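Appendix B. One record, verbatim.
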Amino acid sequence: MDVDVAETDVELREVIALELRLLDPVVRASREDVQALLAADFYEFGRSGTVWDRASIIDLVAGADAGDVPVTVEDVRARWVAPGVALVTYRTRNRSRGTLRSSLWRAGEHGWKVVFHQRTDTGVAPQRCPPPIEAGTLGAAGGSEFGWAPRPIWR
């Protein structure tokens, strides 16, 4: 698993560890463990487009089989977006399905809690994702040098 966080950033590494706990089938099988990691105002945009609230996710995860297909985690990145708020992004693969994931974590009186999560289905799992693109640095090829190109979101 690739992790893009400085060794010295202990808090971001803690947030990543908590995020990965949410993928652990043993943790997911425990309603109490999942509740402990989700903020009271948590919500998720699922890969199907469904919007889930905290209670729905807890019910869904608690009802899942602890022997679910193992997930491969790749390209984990974390960064600060505000004081006490961290963004974690990564890819997961199981069998042949790839998913982009992002979570917002907030520090509070009772430790770190995830407030938001989004899963975007990428279909077939790629072997490797393109390098991150920073604002204003898209090359003349418009991304095609990485095997993809931006498309307009309107028609």
